[in-house]
Structure formats: C-alpha cells, structure tokens
Amino acid sequence: MQLTAAIIPLPDEPCNGLPLPQTFQGPAQLVDPSNEFRLSLPLRAAAATFNSYEILSQAAVAHLATMNGGTGDPQLGDALADLAITGRKSYHHFKANPFPDAMLKQMTAAKAALTPSIPASPADVASAVHRALVRAYKVAWAIRGPANRRAAIRSPLGWIAVSGEDDPPHRPVNVPAPAHEQYEIPVTVGGITVQTRFFIANDATGPAPLPNQPILLLLPQDSVPTIPAGNQVILFLHGHSSSAEEALPIIPEIISAGNARGTMYSVVSLDLPNSGYSERFDHTTVAPASATTYPGGLFDTQPIHTPILDFEENFVAAFVDALDLITPVKTRFAGVIGGSLGGNLGLRLGRSDITARPWLGGGIVSWSPASVWDPMIRDEIKRKGPDRCRDFCAQPETPGSRADYFAEVFDRYIDPTFVRATQPEFWYRQSWIPCKQLHIQFARVARREIYSPFFRQWHWRLAGEQLVYSHVDRVNHFDRTSPWRWELNTVRQLLAAGAGDNFQGSNIFNATQTLAGLMANTPGESLFLQDTGHSMHIERPAFLAGEIARFLDPTVATQQMSFQITCVHQDHGKIASVGGTNRTKNIPFQMTVAECINALVAGNGFFVIGSDGVQAAVHVVTRHAPKGPHTFTFIETVRDSSKPDNLLSLPEC
C-alpha cells in the first residue's frame, strides 16, 4: 500500500447549515414526547397483534366514534389503519389475505355492538371500514409504491403511525425515503435467513414523477431489481446501527465522478442485519451471548471471539450471492465502499480468498474504519467499553429501555471520567457547525421509528465486538505464531481517514495511519484528509467520490504499481538508482532515480520498510539550488528525518 501524507481536500465543501429533511411528528395524544415519541399503549397493543384485520377493524370502530356527532378522535382511526401497513408482520398478513372488506365489516359491527354509545348502522359500518381501508392503501402506496408515485402520495398523509418496538417497519415511514426503487431479498447465512431491504441508484433515466392519482384498493406490486446494461456495480456498506440511506449524500457524486471518467455506476446500498428496515431477529439466533468472548483481565487468557461481527461479514457476501441470482452483478462489480462499520467490514473482506470471491477484485474503499485500534482488552480502562456493551446487551426490555438507550447513545458521556464526550460528537469533525448538530438531530429522529428490543441488543453486542476485534492484532491474540491480520489483506485497498476523527479512546485517524504503514504488501494506497471527521462521505462527498472513482477505475488499477525499495546505488553520496520488489507483480525491479521520479509522477507508489517495521512512502521533492534560479529534484521518504527510513541508509544494490 502506498502511504501518503495528509492533504487538504479541495475544493472546500463547507457546511451551509441546510435544514433537516422533512420529517413528521405524531400528535401529543398518540405519542409520548417524554419517551422519544413512543406510541401510546392502545396503539402499541394493536400493533402487537400483527393481524391487519384486527387492527383495521379497530380503526373502523375508532372512525365510528366520530360519526353522528360522536366525540371520538379522528386521528386515532387513521393511526390504527397505518399500523395495519407499516409493520413488517402486519403488512405480510394484509398481503397474504387480500379483499378484506366483508370480513372487516363483520368484525367492526361485532366490536361496535360491545359499545352501545357508538352508532353502528350497516351504512355507518361500511363507511368506517371504507375510510380505514382507503387510509391503509394510501399508506401502502406512499411507502412501497413506485418511486415516481411515492412523493405525491406521501406528503398529504402527514404523520403515519409506526411501532418499531412491536412490529418494526419494512420501509421508511416518517423520515425521507430514497428517491429510488426499494427492494427486498432473503439472505441466508449459516442456516439463518433474513429479509433485508436495499435500493439501487444510477443515472439511468427513470419514469417521470406522476401526480397524485386515485389509489385503487389494491396493494402496489413489488418491483424486481435490475441494473442497466453497461453499468458497473458499487456496493455501499453503512455504519453501525445506520441504514441504506446513509449512502444518499455521496451517491450522486459517485455517479457524476464515474460519468466524468466514462464509467456508468449503479450503487447498491443495503440494510445490514438488525439495522435500518431489515428484518429483526434475536442476536442469540446467531450465537449465544456467551459465544462473544475476550479476556477479562491482564492475566486472563480467554480467547477473542466475535460471532456477530463474523455474521455481518458473511451477510455481505451472501447478499451479493443472492442478488446475483436475480440480476447479474458479480461479473461487473467495481468495488465495495463504506465507512465506520462499513469500513471495518471492507478491511475484513479484503482478507477474502479472491478465487472464492472474485467480485472483490475491483477493489475496496474503507474510510474511518472501526476496529483499527488496539484490542480493548488488556487495558483496564479501555476494557470498560466492551464490558459496558456486554452489560447493556444482556438487559431485558423494560418500559424504560427505550429512553435509556437514546440517553446512552445520544446524551451521556462515553465515560464520565476518561472520555467526557457523547457518542455523536465522534461522528463529525468539531468545526462542522451547524451541520453537525443538524445531522445528529436527524439521526435521533430516524432511529426512533426503527428502535426495537432486538435492534437495541444487536447494537450493543456488535459495538462491544468491534471494540475487542482489531485489525492490528494477530489472528489469534495469544498465539505469537499466528499471522498479523494486516498480512492477510491481499485485495486492493484504498484506506482513508480524516484528521478530525482522532478523539480520545479510539484515535481512528492515527490508528488508520499506523495500519496503512503496516499494510506494506497490500496493493493500493492511503488517503488522509485534513479538516475532515469520521463521516467523510457526508462532510466531503464530492472529494471522496472523486477519489473512489479514480481508485476503482480499472485503467488506474492496472497502471499503478506498488514498489518496495530495499536497496540503493549511490554515486558520490547521491542516489543514482533504486532496487527492490514490485509488490503488485511480485517481481524484482531496478531503475534509475529519473525513472523512479517518472513512475511516482504517474501515480505509482514507492515505499521503504523502516527498522521499526512501519512503512514510509517515498515522494518527489523539488527544491531551489542555493545559488541561482535552478531547481533540483530528488526522492526521499515522507519520514526522512527518521534515520532508519532514510533511503541513504539502505544497503547497496
């Protein structure tokens, strides 16, 4: 890997304080603002039935209570009708049992008969049932209809009820959905099948937006995923507890950067397990909680096992396999990109057997990756992190779990003594104001509708495993004969981080620089940006997209070589030629300094391994002569002040 110095990304992409995307908030009588806008108990009880007929009949009864001078709450009837559609299980029930009109009238009349104060003539019952069904079908088309129809239907509906704690949603409800077709696919890993949502974004001309046309009392048909002929595929992996929507800021920039290079990209973004709008399931289905292990003290030799993190990696590969059966993607795969958890998974995928996963051959781009720190196990202070995650994961769901989760994630210090900062402060650079606070606020709103007990427990278990797993560790932490993980990264890699992502405890920027130096034999290069934080794809989308398109360009990948200089030939105290190993082709090389300079200018990477085992990149330097207007050009390492890395200290070729 070519090690590079940190640069200032140009042109600048300042925060303009743009307003939050439109979200919808429920009325006070139907939600609890003091508990992160949790649905009221009657609505939650209805959602927990998973029975669309039961929920819709309750909606019709609520509408009956508003007829003929009744004092019922009309918003309650609409909210109940919403719950027949917005929950994954209730929607499946509704879809599996079409044409409910007659049954709903019968159920509604029976319920109304139990409450004499509610008028229930056949005409009133029919009207109430029709009203509930119309609302339900509108909601279905607003969240699952064709992309060119959703916007016109969605806005007039206002707030739509959803109860993630009882029946998690399958599509965005009260937060903006992608302006692309959304799909769903079953993904099987280790005998566990999970339905996950994804979308495909490209520059292909889609159908024009349609006005708000009348809604037929039928559910919208599910679209079949396709990728236009000639498009190359990029797979986006989102961060911890995020969703596929995380890719939206950078997608248009990637498409534009690809077009500028003559490459048409289709970006596929999916919801990882128990995140976004994927199916929820118990983390112990993958492995019992006791299967996540790490040393409990300085003298403990408990092995490090991370089955949830392993499942996440295998899930990505299984998703590609499943999608390829529907629309061919493997033969035109450009690369995998992602940050934080996505960057962590990218580094893990980079150790794949390329013969088994040839679709990874285009390259992997990982920015701000998690788990680049030393494993947080032998340090009594840092080990508090995984210990806390383990304890939070083990807590059963209680009425206060929701509020406590949001307080822990968004409001409380990570550690009141050692890390006096909240978790969201790590997501963006300190100077990115006011956008930083706006994005944190939106993340909180978005997470409210997807929160569930399974989501909470997966969040903490995965977080703890990322803290004890490390890319700078050995495969077996206690076995000194096992290889270092970075030695196994053979897939071409662009490894990136921002200088603003260097907070106490994780120090991702410094740790990523260290890892890049260690990955001497990995083909690829590093990218380090000044004045940039953890979410560089949101803070610097245009710049990062340009670097991604350049790196994944197959002509660049073919032309760029990685050279390790192991010897030099000196002539009167100056380097005349260099020699070593072409790491890309794994063959020896020898060239003059002039040839080396030309190769560096062409984008090839040269490096030296210092006596401390750390890689130091070689770059071109031009300086003015002490006297006269002349300049002279030579090569040196980026750490040339460190004697062991000085080219002049290398042996004679």
What's the short version?
This protein has 653 residues and is an alpha/beta fold. It has 19 helices and 18 strands. The strands form 4 sheets. It has an 8-stranded mixed β-sheet, with helices on both faces. The chain has a 6-stranded mixed β-sheet with strand order 15-14-13-16-17-18. Strands 1-2 form a two-stranded antiparallel sheet.
Describe this structure in words.
The chain is an alpha/beta fold and 653 residues long. The chain has three domains: 31-157, no CATH class; 182-199 and 227-557, Rossmann fold, CATH 3.40.50; 561-649, no CATH class. Helix content is 34%, strand content 17%. The strands form four sheets. It has an eight-stranded mixed β-sheet with strand order 3-4-6-5-7-8-11-12, with helices on both faces. Helix 5 (101-113) crosses helix 6 (122-144) and helix 11 runs antiparallel to helix 14 (453-468).
* SS-derived structural category: alpha/beta
Radius of gyration, in angstroms, nearest whole number: 28 Å
Helix content: 25-40%
CATH third-level topology of the largest domain: Rossmann fold
Task: Please supply descriptive tags for the structure shown above.
653 residues; alpha/beta; six-stranded mixed beta sheet; 34% helix; elongated
